[in-house]
Amino acid sequence: MGEKKRKQQSQEEFMFGKKNYKWLFIGLGFIALGFILMAGGGSDDPNVFDNSIFSWRRIRLAPTLVLIGFGIQVYAILLNPNKDSNSKK
Questions:
Q1: CB contact at 8 A, 47 and 4
Q2: With a threshold of 0.85, does the pTM exceed it?
Q3: 61 found inside a domain
Q4: Is residue 56 a part of any domain in this protein?
């Protein structure tokens, strides 16, 4: 009887809820998109310089997307899945 009671009390719960995982995947998408936008711009010939490496997309947009993705990841980790938005104290 005591073992049955302990099993009921020790119900396994996930650390994160559905909302947390949704935000985690959104953040991963931002990070992946940022790294994809950073890729490329090189030249096959080492003697030829290609100015496309200094494009606005690689210097400003891609790192901003990566930082936004990391911010979303922090938000997803700190989000409380058990908090009810309808209940007020």
A1: no
A2: no
A3: yes
A4: yes
